[in-house]
Amino acid sequence: xxxxxxxxxxxxxxxxxxxxxxxxxxxxxxxTLIRQNPLCLLLLPLWLARGKPRFxxxxxxxxxxxxxxxxxxxxxxxxxxxxxxxxxxxxxATASCRRHAEAIAEHLGFFTSVIGSDxxxxxxxxxxxxxxxxxxxxxxxxxxxNSRDDIAVFETARRAIAVAxxxxxxxxxxxxxxxxxxxxxxxxxxxxxxxxxVHQWSKNILIAVPAVLDHKILExxxxxxxxxxxxxxxxxxxxxxxxxxxxxxxxxxxxxxxxKRPLAAGVVAPAFGVRTALxxxxxxxxxxxxxxxxxxxxLAGYTVATFSYSLKIKRWLLxxxxxxxxxxxxxxxxxxAATDIPPSPWLLAFSIFFFLSLALVKRFVELDQAGIxxxxxxxxxxxxxxxxxxxSQAGIGSGFAAVVVLALYLESSHVHEIYxxxxxxxxxxxxxxxxxxxxxxxxxRREFCDDPVVFIASxxxxxxxxxxxxxxxxxxxxxxxxxxx
Length: 485
Prior knowledge:
The chain has helices spanning 25-36, 44-49, 52-60, 74-85, 98-108, 126-136, 151-156, 167-175, 189-196, 209-213, 220-247, 249-253, 262-265, 270-288, 293-311, 319-339, 345-370, 388-410, 413-418, 428-444, 452-458, 460-476, 481-484, and strands spanning 11-14, 90-97, 113-117, 141-145, 159-163, 179-182. By secondary structure, the chain is an alpha/beta fold. It folds into 2 domains: 11-182, Rossmann fold (3-Layer(aba) Sandwich), CATH 3.40.50.1000; 189-484, Orthogonal Bundle (Tetracycline Repressor, domain 2). It has a 6-stranded parallel beta sheet with strand order 3-2-1-4-5-6, sandwiched between helices. The longest helix has 28 residues, at 220-247. It is elongated.
């Protein structure tokens, strides 16, 4: 038995959010509710106007989180099990919903009783002190907590135990020589980068495509415009990666790789994720105001489409991949809007088919890796194992359609006007086919598990094909006149 186990008569009261679990139940339930019924967004201000207890009650009464999916702090659970074996009475005292707390207590099996919030009482800070004193008397309990709101309880408890405390709680614990079960650890830049999925920013290089094809990529003004558009789109995309992760917390925790994401793993608190997303959105809009107004319209359209995708669309059969392909194509449109270069219909048609193929390969890989039986739907998606062959055929067909569009474009009068040696560009067709077919072959071999666009940006063979494509475009161009005038 752990030597720290206290055999005294005082009960051990344990906070839930941030202490027993490395997350906040209110935030989790809020995002689950919005995902289930987006119209509830309109009701949130009305509920909040009726007071914090009512606000929490309205959310908790509509959502039932699964206790088995929550990210429990292993050190805390192990400590409590030791205390329970030693005969200690353990109380779950939380500002979250009492009903949900009771379900968690029943799941873990070592809590003696539960104290929680209801529609009239928000059991937080001093209110929790009053409830614990009424039940166990002055200094009749030890308390395990983590936040600024727990300091009032720490000061009343016989003994305080700080678990991964925030700055205020950590300062109090050091000043009073209180025990720290898990020392505070600031969120590292590596963790933040992982939450933002910075590696996905490579997708936004697509913003430069219109300028490259229009031979304006080396103009100083265009370079500045593209740089601003790149970061504006990257910040906004990262904000919605966070939002998407918040909507999918429970589902991600059951996934072999997504469970390691900072929010799903409990390494980053939901509130921190929300604050970060808001900062990124504001930064994106601030940069967008420096670019042509059309770019802000594209950002607005991307915001609506991405939010809708995160809420509902990604669960709809086939509609999801069509929207996903469109979101890639929007980046090309954003590049046109940022630089005032009119988008080519040929380029947009090629982009839709090319990125539809990549979106389908992404779904194929998810379905193939899930290992679920036939007629069972992929978690959070509209697909079943028997759809794999159809997805594969549609994806390869979309890739070939993209090449057909490219071939038709190469025969257009526009190409003959801007390129001195347009016949050279025909070699682009086998390069594009190689990239698409190689991804599909690797996917069917189960040797591919990354985002396809990120894969192309990081795979040396794909990079070689892209570089050869660039050489072909230069070779077909009346160099150097077209690039520097």
